[in-house]
Every structure is written in structure tokens, then in C-alpha cells.
Amino acid sequence: MARQGFAVTAMDFAPAGLEKAKRLAVEMGTTLHTVEGDINQFLLTEPVDLLYSIGALQYIHHENRAKQFKQWQECTAPAGLHVLFAFTRHPEVEIAPDWETVHTEEMIFDCQSSGIPHRHAARILVSRKS
Ligand SMILES: C[S@@+](CC[C@H](N)C(=O)[O-])C[C@H]1O[C@@H](n2cnc3c(N)ncnc32)[C@H](O)[C@@H]1O
């Protein structure tokens, strides 16, 4: 993205990761701004066109998720994008060797909560401990 002319801010917990990003930027003849911090506290300070995350969302503690996503959504420019790669659980990927997946089911359903009609996607997973 930096090579394509975008102003990029890269954030990570690990100084080594940020040093690697800076080194790669130099090798590619571009620059980026880095922020060392915890994704649980990371706030955008000006509207962004793109928020991109690969493999880091799982580090947001459950109780911080709504707050963090709300701030990032509010600080995204109109027509801006969030591109998120997240690790998930999947029925075909074993959670732990001593658990058997008994049943799994995916669904999409209509909801009227808050008075605004919308839809949810959800999955039911039943697993049994051996
Ligand atoms: C799977 S790696 C992905 C790294 C990078 N996004 C990439 O694509 O190369 C996960 C990254 O999350 C960082 N990380 C772990 N805990 C974090 C936290 N609480 N806040 C911010 N970054 C964290 C790790 O240092 C690591 O660089």
C-alpha cells in the first residue's frame, strides 16, 4: 500500500515486527509510519480510507471488541474499507484432540431488535468431551 502511494500507519505489539516493516519499506523505496502498542488500546486519530488487519484481531480481548470496532468504524472515511483476516473455529478443524464435534449448523435469520430490520449469520456447534 505504501508503494502505491498511500500514507500507511502500521501498528504492532512487537518492536521486531515494526522494524521488519520499516526495513521492507526502505528496501522497496517507500516509507511508513509505525506505532508500537496494544491493539486493545489502539485508536485512530484521523479518518482512514482503509483499515487492514491480518492475524491480529484475536488479540482484542472480548470485552474491548465492541469499543474498538466502534471507534475504528467512526474514524473511517465515507466509502472507506475494512479488510480483516481473522482466525476462526471451524467444525472441520479440531479444537482439541479430546473433543468430538457432534453437530454443527449454520443459519441466517431476520432480526427486528432496535426497530431496524437486519439479518444475522450464526453457527451452532455441539461438541462432546471424550
Ligand atoms: C499472525 S502475526 C501477523 C503479523 C502481520 N500482521 C503480518 O501480516 O505480517 C500477529 C501479530 O500480532 C502481534 N500482536 C500480538 N499481540 C498483540 C497486541 N496485543 N496488540 C498488537 N499486536 C499484537 C504480534 O506481535 C504479531 O506481529
In whole angstroms, the N-to-C terminal distance is 48 Å
Are any ligands bound, and if so which?
S-adenosylmethionine
3D shape: extended
Question: Rg from C-alpha positions?
Answer: 19 Å
Average pLDDT number? 92
User: Percent range for helical residues?
Assistant: 10-25%
List unreliable stretches of 5+ residues: none
Any guess at the CATH architecture of the largest domain?
A: 3-Layer(aba) Sandwich
**CATH fold name of the largest domain, please?**
Rossmann fold
The assigned structural class equals alpha/beta
Which sequence of SSEs, written as H and E, runs from N to C? EHEEHEEE
How would you describe this structure to a colleague?
The protein has 2 domains: 9-85, 3-Layer(aba) Sandwich (Rossmann fold); 99-129, no CATH class. The mean pLDDT is 92. By secondary structure, it is α/β, with parallel strands linked by helices. 18% of the residues lie in helices and 38% in strands. It has 2 helices and 6 strands. It starts with 8 loop residues before the first strand and ends with a strand. Helix 2 links the parallel strand 3 (48-54) and strand 4 (76-85). Bound molecules: S-adenosylmethionine (SAM). S-adenosylmethionine is lined by residues 12-14, 17, 38-40, 54-56, 59.
